[in-house]
Amino acid sequence: MTPQELATAIARILTDLIAARGVEVPVTDADTQVERPKSREHGDWASNAAMKFAKRIGTNPRELATEIAQRIAEIDGVAAADIAGPGFINITLDAASAGETARRVVEQGEAYGRGDALAGQKINLEFVSANPTGPLHLGHTRWAALGDSISRVLRAAGAEVTNEYYINDAGAQMNKFGRSVLAAALGEPAPEDAYPGAYIQSLGAHVLAQQPDLAEIAAQDRDRALELAQEIGYQQQLAEIKESLERFNVHFDVFFSERSLHAPGENGEKSPIDAAVDRLREQGHVFEADDAIWVRTTDFGDDKDRVFTRGNGIYTYFAADAAYYLTKKDRGFGEKIYLLGADHHGYIGRLTAIAGAAGDDIETDITVLIGQLVNLNGARLSKRAGNIVELDDLLEWLGSDALRYWLARYPADSPLALDGEKLRSRTNDNPVFYVQYAHARTCAVDRNAAAAGIDRSAFAPELLTHQTETELLGKLQEYPGIVAGAAELREPHRIARYLEELAAAFHRWYDNCRVIPLGDAPVEDLHRTRLWLNDAAGQVLRNGLDLIGVSAPERL
RNA sequence: GCCUCCGUAGCUCAGUGGAUAGAGCAACGGCCUUCUAAUCCGUUGGUCGCAGGUUCGAAUCCUGCCGGGGGCACCA
């Protein structure tokens, strides 16, 4: 008996009772979700459905609760259904029914917790999208960790997700980057507005290695040399970014080049950005004023209309963004998710307006998730303060697991501080080790059980009656609902918080219930059954850690 | 000024309208000849920023105020 099955059963009962009263009130499983009561005395699961529906169908909560509870008590696997307080229904499962969870988890393995709530949805998830003019740094790491985890959680809920990185490889920043790299390669003094940082020097060296005659080219054709430096430097920097992301266990399916939006088609077709302007013009959203092209984004709730071309006739960054959005639509994506830092929250209005102008539903086809920035040891990240820390440095210092776990542990809209000392510490200050240790323990039990000749040849779920066993089983039952909720709300931190609770329940169980008998005591079915439970806990810890991109070592 | 996020235990923070608001850390005190003590158990700790409102029920939703972060470009 799973919580989901209970919810479905209650929905059916409620529908019957409502029909018997001759009124029409729709009931869905979502209305009847059961939750785990905070207090153990309130049973295994509780429903507040009676309180939600009593008023709507003209009765009082306790009376309705009584009717529902009678029917729930008849369900196979339910030991008791009691009324409490204003109309809660407290449900207690019998041990065998609860214990079945252990077998189900082991048998389903990696599939346990996955669902199909988002099946059929084709989602585009854009995140990081850092300029390829320098290495990834602390400011990008939160979105990298969060985006990758959101993607994994959405996939676990059945969605088809494409992780996408938009490369700003056109425009003034790239030119500045090219000048910086060229100067470094030729050993010239850095231009006034050059990018700072030692990485420019090594990119310069790389360019020179690839193009040994750069100095001669520069003497004859400065523009040609600049182009070479920019291109070779860009490709190298992008490659390094990709490597950093892979080291961070963050995977992208598509790296989308901004340049491709500006480039005309091979047979002389208009560039995607020109075509996009035409399309929006046909829809009636484009107008001309002050020698510039504008989009009437105010029609879709933006504060002001936005300009597509600057005075010099060149497209703005926003024009490229609009064209980019259209490519996502044309590539068949329904929902397009953008993961942006709080410093970009002014873009929400114009992005959603573009979705509306493109003919999309701005409620369902576009989602802009805004996250707060990260602090390091209390100091705000700032270029001026010079405390930029590169992702590669952080990975070397703290390790990918600790960093990813910490970044995934907090809601995106919550301010977050990275404390290096804490992340290096192996105490409960640093929960990743707590969770990983629980997993390693399940593996240790497996090894010892094998050595002691205990296997899973018997399964007697009715024997799992210790309080810590009931609680561990309850936690395991919760997992699919946690994944579904994390996917629906795009909040992977729920997985991390759940894992900490699961690890605690496991540790308590481990402390109270032995899988391997003491001394010469005989091996009984209870021990074999507990091995199933141990393995189930290990499986769910593994599944959950995978959703946040953290490894599950067999030993620590 | 407008928009937006945050304000919960000494600290860092969870908390999808439900029951007596939780966890870790910190402080104090316990459990290792027994499957990994990186674990576990106990004690201490709260006007959920303030004031109204909606509701059977509000930390949660609405309004106003106070305090803090971020944003309001023909930059990228």
The helix/strand class is alpha/beta
Give the distance, in angstroms, between the N- and C-terminal Cα atoms. Answer: 35 Å
Order of strands in the sheet with most strands:
6-5-4-10-11
Q: State the CATH architecture of one domain.
A: Orthogonal Bundle
> What's the CATH first level of one domain?
Mainly Alpha
Strand content: 5-15%
CATH topology label of one domain: Isoleucyl-tRNA Synthetase, Domain 1
Mean residue pLDDT: 92
Fraction of residues in helix = 40-55%
Poorly predicted runs = 380-386
For the biggest sheet, the summary is: 5 strands, parallel
General shape: flat
User: What integer value in Å does the Rg equal?
Assistant: 29 Å
CATH fourth-tier homologous superfamily of one domain: Isoleucyl-tRNA Synthetase, Domain 1
Tally the beta strands: 14
Give the helix tally. Answer: 20
How would you describe this structure to a colleague?
Among the domains are: 91 residues, Arginyl tRNA synthetase N-terminal domain (Gyrase A, domain 2, 2-Layer Sandwich), CATH 3.30.1360.70; 83 residues, no CATH class; 121 residues, Isoleucyl-tRNA Synthetase, Domain 1 (Orthogonal Bundle), CATH 1.10.730.10. The protein has a 5-stranded parallel β-sheet with strand order 6-5-4-10-11, with helices on both faces. It has a 3-stranded antiparallel β-sheet with strand order 1-3-2. The radius of gyration is 29 Å and the shape is flat. About 1% of the residues have low confidence. With 556 residues, the chain is of the alpha/beta class. Helix 8 packs across helix 9 and helix 11 packs across helix 12. The longest helix is centred in the middle third of the chain and has 26 residues. Strand 10, helix 13 and strand 11 form a beta-alpha-beta unit.
